[in-house]
Specification:
4 helices; alpha+beta; five-stranded mixed beta sheet; elongated
Length: about 130
Amino acid sequence: MEKQKNAVGRRKEAVARVYLSKGTGTITVNGKEYKNYFPIMYLQNQVELPFKTIESETSFDVVVNVQGGGPKGQAEAIKLGIARVLCEVNPEYRPALKAKGLMTRDGRMVERKKFGKAKARRSFQFSKR
């Protein structure tokens, strides 16, 4: 493997740029250790999932720049970015990652607000009299 590979992961409004290199298994998100950046255990598991799937938690170092969205969207954007960059490193990882659903971009976005409505679908309160 050359010195560094990169990929982009997206989810809702979050965009994660993931840089992967050979190393000891450290994951850095926006300059912080990922367990400090995501204090919630569920989000930490989301970030680790691609490595657990291919059973190589300590083979690679990951540096992530993520912006936009909330914590959950950011964690899932990072998950997709890591899965994509792992497939770039070794195409044999792809079937295992795909089977876990890690190669799919979740296209669900917030529906826009429409004019004449209170929110995307919610109407203003109707009064007959």
